[in-house]
Amino acid sequence: MIHIRPLVKLDEMRPAVELQRIYWGTDLESVVPGHMLYSIVNAGGHVLGAYDGDRLIGVLIGQVALNPDVNLPLSDRLHIASKRMVVLPEYRSHGIGARLKLAQRQSAIQQGIGLVTWTFDSLLSINAYLNIRKLRGICRLYLLDYYGTDDAGGLARFGSSDRLLVEWHVSAPAVVKVLDNGYPLSSWDDYVRAAVPIVNPATCNEYDVLTPSTEWSVWADQDSLLVEIPSHYEDMVIADPDVARAWQTHIRDGFTRLFNNGYVVTNFIHTRETGIERSFYVLSLNLPSS
């Protein structure tokens, strides 16, 4: 039976450190040490653990943070910065990450904090599906080489560490409708019926590898549009690094331009077209009301 609970004692942090090492290895820069986890908790943040019986199988770290813009009122700057989530490989794809994030949402609400933020690689469709579709986060900022260009630490790939910034407004009506009231989300068929355009339709090369479009379609006066990414980028990195690099450049160019033109990531879609799995971000000029 999987259960979620906060870690609060110093000796509870040691298994959380070991869990990080399973994912990150021995790279010291990528592992948050136990004393830091303990300090985060005692400064108002949280370390949430997922347990299978007495075994820690997942951990989520969040710290109280301030937006660095000192021109904003203090109340508008306060948020939870979600720093790290790790789930043991054999427990992934079982909804444990979503349960940890929902526990984080409840923690933020109990503290009277309305915003949780974190970053993720925009080319990882499984992360996008959780962050955007299931949790109802939004994105309107693309961070160039956020963690530098050194691949050695595991945060950069092919000398790039671009990230999308997720804003999770945990008590916003659009989030409450879906997470608390079960409001249905728009499906692929809904976007097809509405003739929402794909601005970068991908094609398969002679080796059946999904390759990015050579250019972006014009998106003037479009309330919503679709941006395609590969459904299994991690596999592509191994199978065809050149195409994986091309996707990095392609998505960096597109998201930068779209965000500069006022678009916001509001949804994420998986579908299967003629036997091919496809994945799309939905970008809108207006934030969703549901």
Give a description of the structure.
With 290 residues, this protein is α+β, with helices and mostly antiparallel strands. The chain folds into 2 domains: 2-179, Gcn5-related N-acetyltransferase (GNAT) (Aminopeptidase, 3-Layer(aba) Sandwich), CATH 3.40.630.30; 188-284, no CATH class. Helix content is 31%, strand content 28%. It has 9 helices and 12 strands. It has helices at 13-24, 34-42, 74-77, 96-110, 125-134, 173-179, 188-193, 233-239, 241-260, and strands spanning 2-6, 46-52, 55-66, 78-87, 115-120, 138-143, 163-169, 203-204, 210-211, 224-229, 264-273, 276-284. The strands form 3 sheets. A 7-stranded mixed β-sheet has the order 1-2-3-4-5-7-6, sandwiched between helices. Strands 10-12-11 form a 3-stranded antiparallel β-sheet. A hairpin with a 5-residue loop joins β8 (203-204) and β9.
Keywords:
290 residues, alpha+beta, Aminopeptidase, 3-stranded antiparallel sheet, 9 helices, globular
Query: What fraction of residues sit in β-strands?
Result: 25-35%
Number of strands: 12
Using the coordinates above, name the CATH class of the largest domain: Alpha Beta
Please report the number of helical segments: 9
In CATH terms, what is the fold-level topology of the largest domain?
Aminopeptidase
Look at the structure and name the CATH superfamily of the largest domain: Gcn5-related N-acetyltransferase (GNAT)
Residue runs with pLDDT of under 50 for 5 or more positions? none
Computed over alpha carbons, the radius of gyration is: 19 Å
User: How would a crystallographer describe the biggest sheet?
Assistant: 7 strands, mixed
Known CATH architecture of the largest domain: 3-Layer(aba) Sandwich
In percent, how helical is the residue content? Answer: 25-40%
Instruction: Report, as a whole number of angstroms, the end-to-end distance.
Output: 33 Å
What overall form do the CA principal axes indicate? globular
